[in-house]
Design brief:
single chain, alpha/beta, TIM Barrel, 8-stranded parallel beta sheet, 4-stranded antiparallel beta sheet, globular, binds ligand ERO
């Protein structure tokens, strides 16, 4: 069995990446990922200036997954750009960079800086942070998304990707696919970000479990798998020439297989990685190999996008 994937000019020996935001905010965390079984790594979404993020507690896990309202804590884009400048791109696993500016101007300033640096990285522009009080997820505003992508394409002259929020209606799948179809620079879409603004209740304490936004936060884990798979399949169908990165609910080889069957080129692991640590990537990789052997598949391409309908 061969788990290798070559896409958008990068080679990965397996399709597993951390989800942006998980275990990727500091150089120490990024180095731990670099030494893990991950096929590639991605940085925490960055802003123009460093941010402390929301007040704690801002993350909680449950039996079925997680809720977070981190509030985009990060060291600022220069820190991650510096890590990328020092990275051994030629010999090491691919490095992806997540960008999530607080405004159009901030996004353009950061993307121009990344363009200027001309590093062999893939940029994932985050259109879906659900945890900035008072700020809507750009991905739910189709006109704003189209404007942002048109402006970014002028300052960042290479293919890049976008991190999308989950959509829940075929009309919205279609509208966002039209926006992305109209932007030739989009080489990939990552589906999905957390399901925004859920509420987890601690029954004993009769209380919410995180402080920001009176307990509202992005939901991840088992809760989101069906929604993630639907978004992967729907965007893979609508954007045949672009890659889809599957993210949401992956905690074993089984869910990784499902995402790829639904059309994902590679996949990202979030909540499971946060809870179990980087060893989960070794486990998931090995489980995926076993599953493929049991099913008689030699490569990921043997089954990618081959989900049967009835
Ligand atoms: C970049 C901010 C995000 C955050 C955050 O930093 O609160 N949490 C998420 O689940 N998704 C995000 O995109």
């Amino acid at each position: 069995v061969d788990l290798a994937v070559a896409w958008l000019g990068i080679q990965m020996d397996n399709p597993l990446i951390n989800a942006s935001g998980v275990m990727c905010r500091t150089v120490e965390e990024l180095e731990a990922l670099r030494h893990s079984a991950a096929g590639a790594l991605i940085t925490k979404s960055c802003t123009l200036e460093p941010r402390k993020g929301n007040p704690e507690p801002r993350y909680a896990s449950t039996a079925l997954g997680s809720i977070n309202s981190m509030g985009l804590p990060n060291a600022g884009y220069r820190y991650y750009l510096d890590y990328a400048r020092r990275y051994d791109h030629e010999h090491d696993k691919p490095l992806l960079m997540s960008v999530s500016g607080m405004s159009l101007e901030d996004n353009l300033e950061m993307m121009a800086a990344f363009d200027e640096a001309a590093l062999p990285v893939l940029v994932e522009l985050n259109l879906s942070c659900p945890n900035l009080p008072g700020k809507p997820q750009i991905g739910y505003d189709f006109e704003a998304s189209a404007r942002l992508l048109a402006e970014v394409s002028k300052v960042y002259r290479r293919p890049f990707g976008v991190k999308l929020p989950p959509y829940f209606d075929p009309v919205h799948f279609g509208e966002m696919a039209d926006v992305l179809d109209g932007c030739p620079s989009i080489g990939f879409v990552t589906c999905i970000n957390s399901i925004g603004n859920g509420l987890v209740i601690d029954l004993e304490r009769e209380s919410v479990v995180i402080r920001p936004k009176d307990g509202l936060g992005g939901i991840g884990g088992d809760y989101v798998l069906p929604t993630a798979l639907a978004n992967v399949r729907e965007f893979a169908r609508r954007l045949p020439g672009r890659h889809v990165i599957g993210c949401g609910g992956i905690r074993s080889g089984r869910e990784a297989f499902m995402h790829i069957l639904a059309g994902a080129t590679v996949v990202q692991v979030g909540t499971c990685l946060y809870e179990e640590g980087p060893a989960c990537l070794t486990r998931i990789r090995d489980e995926l190999v076993c599953l493929m052997q049991d099913k008689g598949y030699r490569t990921l391409a043997d089954f990618r996008g081959c989900l049967r309908t009835l």
